[in-house]
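Input sequence (511 aa), recorded before submission:
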Amino acid sequence: MSTNRAHGGDPMDWFDAAGATHYRRLFASTPAGRRLLYADMLSETARIAAALAQCGVQPGERVLCRIEKSLDAVLLYLACLRYGAVFVPVNPAATPAEFDYLLRDAQPRLIVLDPHAGPEVAAVVAGAPSLTLAADGTGSLAELAERSAPLALEHAAAAVAGAVAAIVYTSGTTGRPKGAMLTRANLASNAGALARAWRFVPDDVLLHVLPLFHVHGLFVALNTVLASGASLVLQAKFEPQAALAALEEATVFMGVPTLYTRLLKEPGLDRRSTARVRLFVSGSAPLPAETHREFERRTGHTILERYGMTETLMISSNPYDGPRLPGSVGPPLEGVAVRVTDAGGAAQPQGVVGGFEVRGPAVFAGYWRDAHKTQAQFTADGWFRTGDVGRLDEAGYLWILGRAKDLVISGGYNVYPKEVESELDAVAGVAESAVFGVPHPDYGEAVTAAVVAEAGAALAEADLIEAVRSRLSAYKVPKRVLLVPELPRNAMGKVRKELLRESYAKLYQPH
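Predicted structure, token format:
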């Protein structure tokens, strides 16, 4: 393989390198047979940028996109990045009410909408400046770009190199979504760090099956490819058999834990089908230790788990060379500092559980139009409060025990859900579990678990409680174990524990 050339400073460095070095290299391909060289990517994004300019968009102004995943959607993001417009991605599955809130909050100069989104969605944007872009590449944006002469972009973004590049809305599980402002410097520093940490080189081929409205698919995947001059195979969505077939031409795969559990259900997943891949990465939600071990047994590959947030991009990663520990998200990335603090903000020693705080070049610029929430999220000395609870071990590895808001306080004792979930997941026949607190008249909160059984497994609540009783202190043992067909999740596979708490809020109330 050729030498890694991961660039930093500003994303324009990536495009300059593409023009100088990777011009005739393949940038992206699709299952339908579409192939784009880096030269094509540069010319097409220059045309899209020209179309944005004709619509009155200036560098620094927002372009909100509610479109399906496609290669043209990738090009629109890259055009915004090259031009200096602020890219605002929206989940195309958002309800009209959710979309209306995001639209009013973001106040974009231009909206790009899927023409097939439906009349209720179209009504939300009625009267606002908008263009359309369909998954097949058709639409008014494509037509305008086709008629436009490529915009000279060599210096278009230079004046705003430290400015906001994207506003990505958080999932909103604890209230209204907040728009995290990520700067060009944030994106460049994190992509460069990941490309170096994961040994990305121009010969790499990433199989891209993730959504484009989240930092995982947009920045961890696309930006790392760009920063190293690699290429990608773009699939519109994850289909296990199609992904398995495409691994024959890929060297890297990035997924969320649910994608790995679905791959493990495919009989064809083995050492032969994954022989060309050098790296499997997992993130966006905790990877069950059993999934980690079973994937290694079947394929010979040890999944590399990493940790990040919308507001910080990637924080830590298990090492490319060195132990990849199941249940850990590895040491902090280069340039990133993590400290563990108690409720009063005092730093904790290694091995002691506390809240994670982060400082580094990828930490966001703040929440859009919300200075109060921004200030509340940072400490007086400038560290970002992640809201995650865990510990830092002697080897420098981070171990996440859950979100601070998911901490269960039962009878005055702190119970960290991850610890209980790990024991439940280790019981034969358990596919996955989620532990959460429910109001209890005696304990304040009762440790409660929802468990999904493996196909064909016969589980009983009493047996599951007994199985973990000898491995956990009495106050950590679930008072109830609820057998459910599936766990509620958001679009990136994170379990929505607030829905579990709502559903079972009256579980322990006297009848």
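Checked by second reader. The two ends are 67 Å apart (CA to CA).
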